[in-house]
Amino acid sequence: MKVTLPEGVSLIKIPATAELAIYMIHKELRNRRIITKLEDAGFDSSNLSFDLTEVILQLVGIQNDSNKTYEWYIQLQDKYTALPEPEEPSEYYQQALDFYIELKGVNR
Fold first, then answer.
1. Most buried one in 24, 34, 58, 107, CB count within 10 A?
2. Closest listed residue to residue 55, CA positions, set 102, 14, 20
3. Is 84 strand, coil or helix?
4. Among the residues of the chain, which ranges form H helices?
């Protein structure tokens, strides 16, 4: 069977750990946006948040668990959370992929 991809689209295989990290980043960014909206509306969202930072950093290969590393990760998360909210689900994954690439680009 021959599959024709849309123009400009190519397929690549990425390692399972990268796929998992990107998926987790995607979920964390979506959750963070929801929590921010709730807080802006005056709700206490402290019971709703979850933190995947340690797992994501390990999947990306960052073994340094210092406070400086966590602060850097949270700043990066803030940067991506502040981006316009995607209209399409695929755009969420693009933001998560960009986040992942930025994480991988820094050797900590």
1. 24
2. 20
3. coil
4. 16-40, 53-60, 67-81, 89-105
